[in-house]
Design brief:
The protein is of the alpha+beta class. The chain has 7 helices and 9 strands; from the N terminus they run ααβαβαβββαββββαα. The chain has a single domain, classed as Jelly Rolls, CATH 2.60.120. About 20% of the residues lie in helices and about 15% in strands. The strands form 2 sheets. A 6-stranded antiparallel sheet has the order 1-7-4-9-3-2. Strands 6-5-8 form a 3-stranded antiparallel sheet, with no helix packed on it.
Length: about 290
């Protein structure tokens, strides 16, 4: 299997990633495809998030990252089939292939900011060694309406072309930034938690796809109203780079047998050699969630 063949088998076409969306991704670093999932599908995925979150409690997201004030769930494909549909989102796959070439799933994490919580420093998700050195594409799948009062994601349009922000509290790169020019120095805020000139607070109805170059400066904001704001953060990376959550280290027999060849390819769990044991209930010894190491 290879990416172009996988996209062909899924029936991905030019309508799944339009010229306008390509232009927005190139220039702004993000765009929105509204109402991709039906309200019924959103309700099913949101309800499953609640179920899993109630089981994991304060340890939710422990395979990758636990965030106080914003419950998370990670390793989702080995815990439920409710999100299998998200492995075949055509607009996301088309955009990821355009940006990155040969692709695989990088991570898949559910998140919801609680009332008065969820604010993050501005950050980027990946390093960048030179202009247009793209590593990851991120999609936020909204299960509830994302509004100004319930903790919308904030983004700085065009900032994916700026120097990457290495923020120790949010991301931890195995990477040393190069010295900045005077013009680049002026772009770096003294307070990463403060509003940034020109930032956009993203609003989108439930069922939408917010597709971002993961090099864009962005961050979560505080949920002021306390209204539900459940999302899936699904990321894709190049096949030569490691995953955030190494799927083979968590793979269960049930998950492998449930998924088809294309889904296995994008999760990077195929092929499994004949007779190999694939059932795993915990992280392999010595494994790390710091994917850039």
């Amino acid at each position: 299997m290879y990416t172009k063949r996988a996209l062909f088998e899924l029936g991905v076409t030019g309508a799944d990633f339009t010229e306008s969306e390509q232009d927005q991704l190139d220039r702004q670093g993000f765009y929105i495809r509204k109402n991709y999932f039906t309200p019924a599908a959103c309700e099913e995925m949101a309800t499953e998030f609640d179920r899993l979150s109630s089981i994991e409690g304060a340890q939710g997201g422990h395979e990758v990252h636990v965030e106080p004030g914003a419950p998370r769930v990670s390793n989702i494909f080995n815990k439920t089939a409710a999100y299998d549909r998200c492995l075949g989102i055509k607009p996301v796959l088309a955009a990821a292939h355009y940006l990155l070439g040969e692709i695989k799933v990088h991570g898949a994490n559910l998140r919801e900011p609680m009332k008065g919580q969820g604010h993050q420093d501005l950050h980027v998700d990946v390093p960048k060694h030179f202009p247009e050195d793209w590593w990851v594409l991120n999609v936020i799948v909204t299960f509830d309406d994302m509004r100004l009062d319930n903790g919308p994601t904030r983004v700085i349009p065009g900032s994916h072309h700026w120097p990457p922000l290495n923020v120790a509290a949010v991301n931890r790169f195995d990477w040393s930034p190069k010295p900045l020019s005077p013009a680049e120095e002026k772009l770096i805020p003294t307070d990463l938690a403060a509003p940034y000139p020109g930032e956009v607070l993203v609003e989108a109805p439930k069922g939408s796809l917010i597709i971002c170059n993961s090099s864009i400066w962005h961050g979560g904001t505080r949920n002021l109203s306390g209204d539900r704001r459940r999302v899936l953060h699904l990321t894709y990376t190049r096949r030569d780079l490691p995953q955030q959550l190494v799927q083979r280290q968590h793979l269960t027999q049930a998950t492998y047998e449930r998924l088809d060849d294309v889904q296995r390819y994008f999760l990077d769990i195929e092929p499994v050699p004949a007779g190999a044991a694939i059932l795993q209930s915990a992280r392999a010894p010595g494994a790390t969630s710091d994917w850039w190491k």
